[in-house]
Amino acid sequence: MKLSSQLVVSSLAVFVLSACSGSASQRRQAQDDFEYLNTPPMKEWQSLPGAEPKFYTNYVIPQGDFAGGIGNQVDIRPPQQILELIPGARVDRSNGDVTLWLLDRDEANKVWQTAETLLDERNISVREQNDSRIETEWVTWVSEDEDAPLSARYELSRFEANGRQALKLSLIDWRQGSEQLPVSLTNKERYSALMSNLVAARYDLDIRLEAERKASELVKHIPISMGTDRSGLPVIIARAPYDVLWARLPKLLPEMGFKIEERNQSQGTVKAKYVEPNDEFWAEVGVKPIELKSITYTFLFGDLGNRTSINVTDPEGKPVEEQLLKDMVPVLAAMASKHQ
């Protein structure tokens, strides 16, 4: 599925992949026929003369005027789920609308600004806008699950209730192809959730970029020295939390001549092949070359709270000599401080 005006949403984990073949309508509908629609109307039970009928309430069919689709009007696709990517936010879904409840005004301002950024980046036109309300022009969705391009207009509003800040997203107009139709609850629920997830994903991107920036600033001032692990074996010690150091590894190791082949953050391992840099590199960093073979090494990173241990093993899983670790210390320190 994609959104026109360059609104690319393939990176979101919010779409249901269509594993079945057939037309768009077949992907939305049950595969069986709709013969049940021809079921004769129910008749009142007629007891035999003199018989005393007994009825069990377990099987009483509820009475009432129930509205809803039947037959090919029933959409069998799983409902869209709201991505919980905004820390501290509580999601409320009612009548197809999505409301984000936030703890304070600053957080609400950030989400509101994120929504404005998203609209601007994706060239989504705005029909009306003030400090607490945005009404968009038509946003077109193209999906394999739909028979024709769909277009929707949205309203984003913000307000305060019960001491909390709220942002509400509503789908207010609906169009299939060139025909404007009433907004159904099914479409409202599905495509309001989809737009909400775009805002949440853009907010999450800003958070991750800011975290990377802070990690990059912290890692520039990391003292690196030799030390010992809990077993008394020699290791390199970086005086920085594990997550902070890990964020810079994709830059630090390649600058030292290591081409990263595999990374596993949960296990704290990085496999990288060493290719010795040229003499110009060693002259620039001002340290002597490392005497390493051009083979694949495994870096082992240990989380020690406010510090991180670093060990290195060869392809057979044997730790490299202590002297090689000592030789790496000034190189790591030079790379960490290179961009100060």
From TrEMBL:
<dbReference type="GO" id="GO:0051205">
    <property type="term" value="P:protein insertion into membrane"/>
</dbReference>
<dbReference type="GO" id="GO:0009279">
    <property type="term" value="C:cell outer membrane"/>
</dbReference>
<keyword id="KW-0564">Palmitate</keyword>
<dbReference type="Pfam" id="PF06804">
    <property type="entry name" value="Lipoprotein_18"/>
</dbReference>
<comment type="function">
    <text>Part of the outer membrane protein assembly complex, which is involved in assembly and insertion of beta-barrel proteins into the outer membrane.</text>
</comment>
<dbReference type="GO" id="GO:0043165">
    <property type="term" value="P:Gram-negative-bacterium-type cell outer membrane assembly"/>
</dbReference>
<keyword id="KW-0472">Membrane</keyword>
<keyword id="KW-0998">Cell outer membrane</keyword>
<comment type="subunit">
    <text>Part of the Bam complex.</text>
</comment>
<dbReference type="InterPro" id="IPR042268">
    <property type="entry name" value="BamC_C"/>
</dbReference>
<keyword id="KW-0732">Signal</keyword>
<dbReference type="InterPro" id="IPR014524">
    <property type="entry name" value="BamC"/>
</dbReference>
<keyword id="KW-0449">Lipoprotein</keyword>
<protein>
    <recommendedName>
        <fullName>Outer membrane protein assembly factor BamC</fullName>
    </recommendedName>
</protein>
<comment type="similarity">
    <text>Belongs to the BamC family.</text>
</comment>
<dbReference type="InterPro" id="IPR010653">
    <property type="entry name" value="NlpB/DapX"/>
</dbReference>
